[in-house]
Amino acid sequence: LQSSRVLVTGGAGFIGSNFILYMLKKYQEEINIINVDCLTYAGNLENLKEVEHRKNYKFLKVDVCDKKAILNIFQTYDIDRVIHFAAESHVDRSIRNPEVFVNTNVLGTLNLLNAAKLAWETEDGFKPGKKYLQVSTDEVYGALEGEEGYFYETTPLDPHSPYSASKTSADLMVKSYVDTFHFPANITRCSNNYGPYQFPEKLIPLMINNALNGKKLPVYGTGKNVRDWLYVEDHCKAIDLVAEKGRVGEVYNVGGHNEKKNIEIVTMIIDTLLEMLSAKDPRRKLISHDLITYVEDRKGHDFRYAIAPDKIKAELGWEPETPFSEGIKRTIAWYLEHMEWMERITKGEYQKYYEKMYRM
Ligand code: NAD
Ligand code: TYD
């Protein structure tokens, strides 16, 4: 490990908290993590309870758009790595309210780039060993129309939703810093993640939660849209690897090799829940395929996403390790064991945790 001080933004969100837990487990005391998150509805510090008292972990409640606060962090800590997760991440919300997506995803990224550049630049370039990693998405490539083909790093950017347009804009700001200043950055673009701690607005946790409560399972349009699902821990491994070994300035696509139609996912969730819950469990009676309800389609709904992670495999030896059949069982088991986590989210109680924990 070349870096010891890692600034993680959005570390209280789904992938960010999985990443922090993964890194602290992997590197133990060798690493220092500073988690910068402003705790929007999607930020849940309870995800990080088991590490919050560690000396090499620090949480700062800061908005990535706050120029002064971000500059101050770079002046206070000698940051080696930036792993930038913080974002507004939900497509449906971006269709209703795009403005916050531009603020956080585009201007927030620009603010971080500027602060890192200022802290890292020398007279003839940048301090050695520094790296900025932009966590992006396959949605910047737009949509694949038929059943065939993949997104490659060379696929033209063609975003459709306000969310993907904001992520693309952020990627282009990063690219412009690489091209203009030789700024030491990488961009990773990954497919749909699933696993523990995902906020129940996204397909998989929403369906698990609704099914366990006997609520309808809303499938958009025909249910035939395809997503490529990646187990979150596999994604965390890819990010760590790219931050350490990725060639400066390069983009790496990170895919799960696991394309599924939405309706297949929903069906699998129902079947797996029925398999896992004991006959005596009262929740079992609530669950059936009759809960599936086709609803109005998402506006501009991208048909299919699929990534061939050839470049990251060839250059860095990364491959998705977790088969979907196993990952989905692990995920459902986690949600079954953490019903209280879900309850606190649906009641909004998790949002009081910061005041209680940090007394501010
Ligand atoms: P999430 O919505 O679960 O978490 C986002 C986190 O960022 C939250 O903790 C939130 O409080 C924080 N945040 C939001 N605005 C902020 C701001 N202005 N300042 C500081 N913190 C702020 O998101 P996620 O699913 O964990 O996604 C993380 C990153 O990965 C995002 O950049 C997203 O675009 C990208 N990504 C996600 C997926 C996926 O399937 N979830 C797929 C590809 C790429
Ligand atoms: P989502 O989890 O929102 O991720 P993204 O839109 O970024 O890929 O949605 C995944 C797929 O599931 C997408 O095709 C939309 C669909 N979907 C539903 O059918 N019903 C739902 O309630 C949700 C949230 C999503």
Largest sheet: 7 strands, parallel
Structural class: alpha/beta
Distance between the termini: 35 Å
Which term fits the overall shape?
globular
Rg, Å, rounded: 20 Å
Q: Give start-end ranges of low-pLDDT stretches.
A: none
Strand residue content: 15-25%
Spell out which ligands are present.
nicotinamide-adenine-dinucleotide, thymidine-5'-diphosphate
Strand order of the largest sheet: 3-2-1-4-7-8-12
For the secondary structure, the number of strands is: 14
Order of helices and strands: EHEEHEHHEEEHEEHEEHEEHEHHHH
Total number of helices: 12
Approximate helicity band = 40-55%
Quick structural summary:
The chain has 360 residues and is α/β, with parallel strands linked by helices. It has helices spanning 14-27, 67-76, 91-96, 99-120, 162-181, 203-212, 232-245, 262-276, 310-316, 324-337, 339-346, 353-358, and strands spanning 5-9, 32-37, 57-61, 81-84, 121-122, 125-126, 131-137, 185-190, 192-194, 217-220, 226-231, 251-254, 259-261, 292-295.
